[in-house]
């Protein structure tokens, strides 16, 4: 990430070695020492990894089983069944209720990206506005915003539901997307980051050169803000993707549900014991398929989120 | 590692307290400030301020079939705070907060401290694997654990059978509290671990060298230097966990259908408000419950921030 390096250069004299360089050096001198402690630490890590990974391993295995395999599999619940039914299960997902599962998955993507992208655009603009312009009401507004970070989102679901229903928006995609655009924490992060990484002198120089405010925002500020932007995008996409209470309350049309609410519905029906509704194999396969995109993107975008997630906490 | 570069940069960054050095505030710049903030302000007002005001307004009214809608002032709040079901739910989330948050933070802190001292491939791999549950939607996580706990699907019978023991029923009324704690710990510890770990990477290692010269061992370095150095990110994690725990909804709601009868519809205040609103159409009383919960979370986290403002760096 060339951008982070640039930011680092802006805030630190280039001559002093960065904490990372010093850390690398001190780690080299560490090597070979503390051998015993390392074994202990690694054992501890292996135990943690087993704990965190077992449910996912179970899900992977369960997605390859049919209904009877789930109950009385030949290899137990943590190993594959003799009968490999993964592709049958996926086919089952296409058949059940006219392939509504794929519709749900598509809805989840739509909500997460529309909500997440929108929230990011609003947060970047607002954070930049708060950080780089003085305007009347700025401090008052920002104090209210800071306080609102602590308002629990779920407390807003019921009044939002009632307002949306008065506006005739219940059971539309807007009932999920519009409330997801709200991200006070994103604005807070963007403001702090903008203050630190976009020097006023740079903006003033651009103004002297005759650039308009919009052009300055897009061509001078935005490139510097990329690391924080990725973080806010990630947090808001994951937030919307994860949201359960809001769609549960504002959507009842099965065609509009996100995959989380849909699968939860299948589970509730299967648990209720209705004979024709026992679709355990489809639930496990559906859950497995639905987590693949996010897990993969987290693994591949590692270098982007790892730095970003702590933006708010390191000051 | 690029994330290291970013974190190396962060300690050097200091918030600039003044705005663009003394330049005069003209009307045009004021307008641009509002231009950048306005889109967010609209969403903020529409989906936070208005719903909050509306919920408060609704909560002051009572509507019955016989008398219609009447303005009853704080009657709903008196009812809420003398309602044993609501108080029981509040007590339950308080109990969750007292037990669950320390467990999550201990797991996250221990993992982060161990990862910070290691640079092997195993530690990199572990870091990813411990974090992966964060990429799983809460609903899917709860569904998976529901299956794992289930005596019909889960591995518990096999695992306990190896030792000749009978598996406990994780979904029984007596065990459900612990089972829920386990789900939340599994889901969120990795996220908190990354925040703490990133903060640790930002600490200048020459401090550790100085400590080593003074004769501090690894444990002393960890508890007396590392932990105090990253206290601001610990406070951040605690606030996230506190807000999340007090609005506990998704996990118990999902597990409810699996654990037949062990989780009542009023298990947490949020579930109670949801049931009142969407099963009994008592929107006024539900608003009062949601608003009370919101106020409690807000005041709770505000007081907490006030007492830890030195550590958190928030002003």
Automatic annotation (TrEMBL), chain A:
InterPro entries cross-referenced by the UniProt entry: MetI-like, MetI-like_sf
Presence of the UniProt keyword Transport in the record: yes
Name of this protein: Carbohydrate ABC transporter membrane protein 2 (CUT1 family)
Principal location: membrane
Organism taxonomic ancestry: Bacteria, Bacillati, Actinomycetota, Actinomycetes, Micrococcales
UniProt-listed PANTHER family: ABC TRANSPORTER PERMEASE PROTEIN MG189-RELATED (PTHR43744:SF12), ABC TRANSPORTER PERMEASE PROTEIN MG189-RELATED-RELATED (PTHR43744)
The organism's place on the tree of life at top rank: Bacteria
Segments of this protein annotated with the region Disordered: 13-34
Family membership: Belongs to the binding-protein-dependent transport system permease family.
GO CC annotations, alphabetized: plasma membrane
Domain ABC transmembrane type-1 positions: 105-300
Biological process according to GO: transmembrane transport
Organism: Microterricola gilva
SUPFAM superfamilies: MetI-like
From TrEMBL, chain B:
Region (Disordered): 1-21
Origin: domain of life: Bacteria
Topology versus the membrane: Multi-pass membrane protein
Cellular localization per UniProt: Cell membrane
Span of domain ABC transmembrane type-1: 90-304
Record-linked InterPro entries: MetI-like, MetI-like_sf, UgpAE/MalFG_permease
PROSITE patterns, per database record: ABC_TM1
GO CC, one annotated term: plasma membrane
Keywords: Cell membrane, Membrane, Transmembrane, Transmembrane helix, Transport
Membrane spanning residue stretches: 32-57, 93-115, 127-147, 159-184, 229-249, 285-307
GO BP field: transmembrane transport
Major localization listed first in the record, in broad terms: membrane
Family: Belongs to the binding-protein-dependent transport system permease family.
Protein name: Carbohydrate ABC transporter membrane protein 1 (CUT1 family)
Species this chain originates from: Microterricola gilva
């Amino acid at each position: 990430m060339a951008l982070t390096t640039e930011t680092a250069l802006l805030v630190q004299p280039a001559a002093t070695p960065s904490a990372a360089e010093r850390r690398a050096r001190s780690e080299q001198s560490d090597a070979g020492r503390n051998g015993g402690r390392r074994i202990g630490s690694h054992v501890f890590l292996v135990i943690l990894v087993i704990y965190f990974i077992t449910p996912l391993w179970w899900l992977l295995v369960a997605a390859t089983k049919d209904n009877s395999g789930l109950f009385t599999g030949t290899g137990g619940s943590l190993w594959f069944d003799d009968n490999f039914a993964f592709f049958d299960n996926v086919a089952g997902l296409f058949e059940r209720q006219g392939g509504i599962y794929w519709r749900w998955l598509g809805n989840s993507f739509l909500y997460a990206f529309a909500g997440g992208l929108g929230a990011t655009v609003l947060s970047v603009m607002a954070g930049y506005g708060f950080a780089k312009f003085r305007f009347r009401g700025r401090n008052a507004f920002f104090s209210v915003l800071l306080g609102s970070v602590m308002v629990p989102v779920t407390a807003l679901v019921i009044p939002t539901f009632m307002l949306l229903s008065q506006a005739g928006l219940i059971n539309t995609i807007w009932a999920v997307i519009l409330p997801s655009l709200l991200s006070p924490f994103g604005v807070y992060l963007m403001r702090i980051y903008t203050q630190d990484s976009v020097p006023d002198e740079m903006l003033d120089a651009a103004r002297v050169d005759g650039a308009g405010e919009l052009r300055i925002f897009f061509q001078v500020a935005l490139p510097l803000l990329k690391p924080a932007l990725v973080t806010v995008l990630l947090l808001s996409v994951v937030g919307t993707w994860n949201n359960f209470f809001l769609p549960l309350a504002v959507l009842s049309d099965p065609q509009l549900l996100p995959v989380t609410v849909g699968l939860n519905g299948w589970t509730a029906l299967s648990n209720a014991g209705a004979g024709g509704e026992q679709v355990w194999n489809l639930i496990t396969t559906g859950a497995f398929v639905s987590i693949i995109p996010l897990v993969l993107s987290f693994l591949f975008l590692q270098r982007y989120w790892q730095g970003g997630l702590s933006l708010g906490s390191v000051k | 590692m690029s994330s290291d570069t970013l974190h190396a940069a962060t300690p050097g960054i200091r918030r600039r307290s003044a705005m663009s050095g003394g330049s005069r505030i003209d009307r045009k710049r004021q307008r641009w400030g509002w231009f950048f903030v306005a889109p967010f302000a609209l969403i903020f007002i529409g989906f936070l301020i208005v719903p909050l005001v509306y919920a408060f307004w609704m909560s002051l009214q009572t509507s019955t079939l016989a008398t219609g809608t009447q303005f009853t002032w704080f009657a709903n709040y008196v009812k809420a705070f003398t309602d044993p079901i609501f108080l029981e739910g509040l007590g339950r989330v308080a109990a969750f907060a007292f037990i669950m948050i320390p467990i999550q933070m201990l797991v996250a802190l221990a993992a982060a401290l161990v990862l910070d001292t290691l640079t092997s491939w195993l530690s990199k791999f572990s870091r990813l694997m411990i974090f992966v549950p964060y990429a799983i939607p809460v609903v899917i996580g709860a569904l998976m654990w529901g299956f794992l706990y289930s005596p019909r699907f889960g591995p518990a019978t096999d695992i306990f059978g190896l030792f000749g023991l009978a598996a406990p029923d994780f979904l029984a009324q007596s065990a459900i509290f612990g089972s829920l704690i386990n789900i939340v710990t599994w889901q969120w510890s990795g996220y908190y671990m990354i925040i703490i770990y990133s903060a640790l990477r930002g600490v200048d290692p020459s401090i550790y060298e100085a400590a080593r010269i003074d004769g501090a061992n690894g444990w002393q370095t960890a508890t007396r230097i590392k932990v105090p150095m990253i206290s601001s990110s610990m406070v951040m994690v605690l606030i996230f966990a506190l807000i999340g725990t007090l609005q506990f909804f998704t996990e118990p709601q999902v597990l409810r259908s699996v654990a037949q009868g062990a989780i009542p519809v009023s298990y947490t205040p949020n579930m109670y408000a949801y049931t009142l609103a969407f099963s009994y159409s008592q929107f006024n009383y539900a608003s009062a419950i949601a608003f009370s919960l919101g106020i409690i979370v807000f005041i709770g986290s505000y007081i907490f921030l006030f007492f830890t403002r030195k550590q958190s760096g928030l002003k």
